[in-house]
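Technical note accompanying the year-one report. For the benefit of new consortium partners, we illustrate the data format agreed upon in the data management plan: each record pairs a sequence with a structure-token string. No post-processing was applied to the example shown here.
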Amino acid sequence: MFARLKWFASVLQWPLRPLVKYKIIPAQPASSLELNLNKPLFYISRVASASDLATLKRACLQLGLPDPAEQVHIGNVSLPRTLFLQQPTPLWGTAKASLALQQGQKLLQAHLNQPDQDAQLVPVAISWGRAPGKEASVKSVIGEAAAPGWLRKLFVVLISGRHTLVQFSRAVSLKDMASEHGASEESSHKLLRVARFHFYRQQLAATGPRQPNRAALFNALLGSEALKKAIADEAKSKNISLEQARVEARKLLEEIAADYRESTLRVGDRLLSWLWRKLFSGIKIHNAEVIRDLAQRGHEVVYLPCHRSHMDYLLLSYVIYQQGLAAPHIAAGINLDFWPVGKFFRRGGAFFIRRSFSGNKLYSAVFREYLSQLFRKGYSVKYYSEGGRSRTGRLLQPKTGMLAMTVQALLRGIDRPVTLVPVYLGYEHVMEVSTYLRELKGSAKTKESALGILQAIRQLRDYGYGYVNFGEPISLNSYLQQHAPDWRQSINPVEPQKPQWLNPVVAKLAHEVMTKVNQTAALNAINLIATTLLATEQHVLTRKALVAQLDLYLALQQQAPYHASVTLPEGNGSNLVQHALDLHKIHLQQDEFGDLIQLSAEEAVVMSYYRNNVSHLFVIPALLATALLQHRSLSKMQLLNICQQLQPLLQQELFLASDDLSCYVGQVLAFLQQQGMIEEVEHSYQCTDSQNPAYHQLQLLAHNSDAILQRYAMVLNLIALEAPVQRAELEQHSQQLAQRLLKLHGIESPEYHDKQLFATLVNALKEAHYIQLDEQYQLTSGQNFQPLLSTVNALLQPEVLQSIQQITANKDSG
């Protein structure tokens, strides 16, 4: 039987070439799946199809993997390299039984007979097309059979052959299988059952659930108990008929709901592939195997990316689709529902959400019910916890509404585990940066339009690399079990629940999501060069000094890493400088003394956005460097105490990881000492001699904490002078003080214009009990306020501290 299949596959090999275009996942299975090519290797696939075997052979030869059409010798046994779970369905009659059971038994028995053998069995799924199909569709009967006969398969190849996936999975050790389960028929059955279930899960992960009829979906939602109650309440509150309220609810569903079309995804995939080639030198993807594993294990996956640019909507969905997974449904702002892209986004899986639900109970109920339906049906979902795009480059404080509704959906009784996947999105160029800076300075927000898209298309050029780093997943079920052990008592399939524990648990969860986003940050040429050049007074360094500082930062993240998930760029400092020059992000000036690399005043403001993307990675090393520069000598305990005092504030503002701070401080100090930047004398640390080039490197590193310490000093000195003070008044005065400081010291950085940063700092001070509310609900200093004020003031450059204290004193006397 295999010989005949092999012959047909060889006949079809060349006719299929123009008809079949496939994507291999993972791209390099031998390395990604840790296959040992020195050991015997077998494949197991779903259907004994000549077209499947021909396509698999073509892919394997391309990858340098063993030929699936060969025979393999295990001891005295010779078996086909490829096992098939089932035979195709014939035009008439029933399908013959597969030989996989007997072949599986022979393989297991061969390993029992020769224990030194250790063959690998690699599951390979070949998916012709990515269409999930429609619920109750005729296509499910005609064209989407699991094992189509030759005539059906002909149409499948003709229609979907150019959208084929060849997915390799992690190998099963037949030696382990045989030693654990033996070689009985029951053991072989178990092996095949596991393979069948694996292929089912894989197919579901690649296509997503079947799509419901849109009208039927709306009717089902409007017929739910929760929406019927909301419609009745709407009719009563507005004194209208139930039918009028129902019509309004249907209109809201039309406004919100996606109109998912696989054909749109295929077109979008081609367009975006072209667009990314125009825009990016490449797209760097990290940790994608985690999401494939989650999806194939049946998890409900919720993607929670940071939000840098409108490009995020397209880039993340594209990457997920390219990883062989169904594109997620995307929560998009209603501002993006404009002609002509609104319809395209909606058919690509976008559902639209208003900025505020306040005062509209019917809208809130409709949206919550729609989101719950997505989860119940098994669609992956993507939304942005920050709510909007970051204008400063830092992560914004998370909005908890969507996350709360996700938890409430789980409380409706979803029978699959729900997993949150934080995602870091990074760019070497964000098209909207200039607009962000104008908005921070008070300009009106630019409204999205078709004209804006056309203008952006005209400016297409190489923007360097894009980065998609998938962070450590958070099991929502496990998280609730840990932080709200009785959460299952709140499960109600009919009514959405809002238990007392919901808001505090969701707030804590939202912060953890953002922390995990920052833990998987991507360092690149632009954010590293921005970090370095913006630490200089005139934003200029010799090429040699810039390269040395870049190499220092790369070594710091290798030897004293902020987190193991942080990704580093390829190459050394010299390569990074050349890459930035090629992108025209920096300027090169040459004279007889050597090369200078610099930024203009306008470029420096823009580059601060990219520095802020990764400022959390350097803030603790920068604080340690600042402390050692400002004080003659400090012990490790004194340095640790400084970091511990500031840690609650940094955690709130920068979503700083709260792992073992003492260990991290020790690693950074050891690195600085190894680099010759500091010395240990009698159990205390001190800076190297100021004539040493390493001293200048330490100064550049220290500058990364300047802006943070200056803001902290502004707020703390105002509190010391004005307390007790109303919160709104404190935030307003802090903003005014920041503007004055900008003019006095020529500081220009977008975060100084961000009012929210001062509000976040006040929150952090209050939560850490550095400040508190008095009986009149005014802010006043707390028990540990004075030590914190002294620590921050002592870390500031004397001239800046003097300016802050003079401004505040003059204000008070005035």
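Partners are asked to follow this layout when depositing records. Residues 185-207 form the longest helix (23 residues).
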